[in-house]
Design goal:
Rossmann fold; single chain; alpha/beta; 8 helices
């Protein structure tokens, strides 16, 4: 659902002892700007054991859940002093992504916030398999927090796809722009737009002599003109100023993160779609390859569904 109707934010808290994490800070900023409530949620996955070991494991899990609940309440109390509405919950017995998806539906959440972590010696922000399961299956917008710095009048970048490649529906750009405008309004940011398109297939710059080379150059000019025309139309329909739009020819997976950095984006809004023939939500191989390379936060939205789970009564 569009973030302009944001009423309940679900925050995944992996380590309740961490206090106010960067994911919680993002949720707090959005809650202050929209009046939404926050739920801090911790999932403890089930352990596979047998016999006496199973009983000991269950007891340990119960004690861990009680401890995590106390720690979540400590963090919630800090946020409540800022006059935010905050609840807490600890869930046991499910894989983390399954627990989060169940809670999205049970709580009627409008937004799920998770945090990307640094995993290797090069300090890259890598997404886990759990993150990708959420990207593919979460029925509401998913905010992946990467940056530690607070949002301060952030540049919110809408990653549009005016040619609607990879089976993307026509309305997805509109949902991306809606979400970008909603976040920007909540946190006093500015909305920008970008599209990275691949060069035409078969075009080779060194084939510039002779009839074949001339024909290829002519087709290249037509292709680029069509891209510019479609992109300009999409930017106008989405209510984004022309001087805040960037069109780049290159490899989308490699160059979109570069464009985001050059535009000083604090958040990029991208679309996820359902690939034909696959019974799951899939953001697309290009975008999935790009996700780890973004240094800014990422908001993943999906096409609006007529009977969306996110529109269930509270």
């Amino acid at each position: 659902m569009p973030l302009r109707k944001l009423e309940r934010i679900l925050v995944a808290v992996g380590d309740p002892s961490s206090g106010v994490t960067k994911a919680i800070r993002r949720a707090s900023a959005l809650a202050r700007g929209t009046g939404a409530s926050i739920e801090l949620f911790n999932a403890i996955p089930a352990s596979v054991s047998a016999g006496n070991l199973q009983a000991a494991t269950e007891r340990f899990t119960r004690l861990e859940a009680e401890q995590n609940a106390r720690r979540l309440e400590q963090t919630a109390n800090r946020l409540r002093r800022e006059e935010l509405i905050v609840t807490t919950k600890v869930q046991t017995g499910y894989a983390v992504h399954e627990a989060l998806l169940r809670e999205v539906r049970t709580a009627g959440a409008d937004l799920l916030v998770i945090e990307a972590h640094k995993h290797n010696i090069f300090a890259r922000l890598l997404l886990t398999q759990t993150d990708f399961e959420l990207i593919r299956h979460c029925p509401v917008p998913l905010l992946i927090v990467k940056r530690r710095a607070a949002w301060h009048r952030p540049h919110v970048l809408a990653a549009l796809d005016p040619f609607h490649a990879h089976d993307k529906p026509l309305g997805l750009d509109r949902e991306i722009a809606r979400a970008a405008h909603s976040v920007a309004a909540a946190v006093r940011g500015s909305v920008y737009a970008a599209h990275v398109y691949p060069p035409p297939r078969g075009f080779a710059p060194d084939m510039s002599v002779g009839v074949a080379g001339s024909a290829l150059e002519q087709e290249d000019r037509k292709y680029r003109a069509a891209v510019r025309r479609h992109f300009s139309g999409a930017v106008a329909r989405c209510g984004i100023a022309r001087n805040k739009a960037r069109l780049v020819c290159g490899d989308p997976a490699a160059d979109l993160p570069v464009v985001a950095r050059s535009m000083r984006a604090a958040l990029i809004v991208m679309g996820a779609v359902s690939r034909s023939g696959l019974k799951r939500i899939f953001i697309g191989s290009t975008a999935e390859r790009a996700l780890d390379s973004f240094t800014c936060d990422v908001l993943v939205v999906k096409p609006r569904q007529p009977a969306s789970l996110s529109s269930s009564p509270r």
